[in-house]
Fold this sequence. Notes:
This protein is of the alpha/beta class. It folds into 2 domains: 4-170 and 360-375, Glycogen Phosphorylase B (Rossmann fold), CATH 3.40.50.2000; 174-358, Rossmann fold, CATH 3.40.50. It has helices at residues 17-28, 45-52, 69-81, 91-100, 116-119, 123-134, 148-156, 182-193, 214-228, 243-252, 268-274, 289-296, 327-339, 341-358, 361-375, and strands at 4-10, 34-40, 56-59, 85-89, 108-112, 142-145, 164-166, 200-205, 232-237, 259-263, 277-279, 301-304, 320-322. The strands form 2 sheets. Strands 3-2-1-4-5-6-7 form a 7-stranded parallel beta sheet, with helices on both faces. Strands 10-9-8-11-12-13 form a 6-stranded parallel beta sheet, with helices on both faces. Helix 9 (214-228) links the parallel strand 8 (200-205) and strand 9 (232-237). Helix 3 (69-81) packs across helix 4 and helix 9 (214-228) packs across helix 13. Residues 186-351 form the Glycosyl transferase family domain. It comes from Brevibacillus choshinensis.
Amino acid sequence: MSKLRVLHVIGGGEFGGAEQHILNLVSTFPAAEVEVAVVCFYDSLFASKLRQAGITVVTLDQFGRFDLRLLRGLRDAFQSFQPAIIHTHGVKANFFSRLASRGLHVPLLTTVHSFLRYDYASPLAYAIVSMMERGTRQWNRHYIAISEALASILRDQGVPGRDISVIYNGMDLSPYRQTQSREEDRSRMRREWDIPEDAFLFGTVARFVPVKGLPVLVDAFAKLQKETGSSSYLVLVGDGPEREGLENQVKQLGLESHVRFAGFRQDIPACLNAFDCFVHSSFYEGLGYTIIEAMASEVPVIASHVGGVKEFVFHEQTGLVVEPGDSSALALAMRQLKESAQLREAMVKRALEKVENSFTIELMTEKILALYRKLIP
């Protein structure tokens, strides 16, 4: 049997959940069955990680952000690689790939990682990207939704159910299951962040953008500190356009001595090992990659009851859930979890079982490969 040639297309200007998903997927395709390459519009950290993993990368960073010459660059890449499947991720990649592939008779598959309404704060930007996405859907063959929540949105927008497959993002759990290094990581990271070894540490990992609801988390932490004294700490791992506003909020609330901004990190497993609780405060989430990572690391979670999170974080079973934007409810959940070691232990055990049964990279890869075979003419 000849190898299946698969070409992924993504902007790749940042390294978020979609990029991690592609890296996981293409790194675990069986080499004897699949030949894969990735087209990135930017030559950045993601492209470097792909190269380190031995994946062929084509970059189109010589063109401007919405340079129509991208169409020619993409079409050249398509004709050179001769894929049997073109698999796109993100509005820009979807839009240009659908236009560039016309006439090539290659099935286009799009993975939907998020809900566009929450990705673009500006109404004008949202209107433009919605038009780009919906106006080219006629040339797309099939969709992978990474949660039933996102599949429901697609159906509401008129995409036929037969053209949608729900396949959860899978991840390599091994970096988060290195139990022998947990105590060492905990001590080392706390020394780096100047946090006492015995302090209760809340933490999160997120892009600092509006949809992540980080001001709500800071406000909830302030309420918790006021109610319980100053025995807890909060670490925010990540970066983005909201960082300055968050730093100002922390100063205004007088929390500088108990809140740490850790910046963008690549040692997320070590960071998670330092946390006593992972707090997710998003207003929406297609799935919630960082929550799954925390659950795999046996860190108890508190999460917004939104989107795909509802499909695996069950209240007082695999985590605590709160309504998005409610800082008082979030503070109450943080206090409840901090004060009950028994609850933390019970939830951690059930959460790990859920992750190992639903979110492995092997299960995801198997399902996506089966879908590829189904779509080939």
